[in-house]
Amino acid sequence: MSASLSSSTYPTLQSKLSVAPMMDRTDRHCRYFLRKVSARTLLYTEMVTSQAILHGDLEKLLGFTPEEGPLVLQLGGDDPAKLAQCTRIAAEFGYDEINLNVGCPSARVQSGNFGACLMMEPERVADCVAAMRSASDLPVTVKHRIGVDEQDSYEQMARFVSIVAAAGCQRFTVHARKAWLKGLSPKENRDVPPLRYADVYRLKQEFPALVIEINGGILTLDETLAHLEQVDAVMIGRAATDNPYLFAEADQRIFGASEPVRSRHEIVESMYPYIDHWTSRGWKLHGLMRPMLQLFAGQPGSRVWKRTLTENASKPGAGVEVMQMALAQVPLVEG
Question: 128 an active-site residue?
Answer without folding.
Answer: no
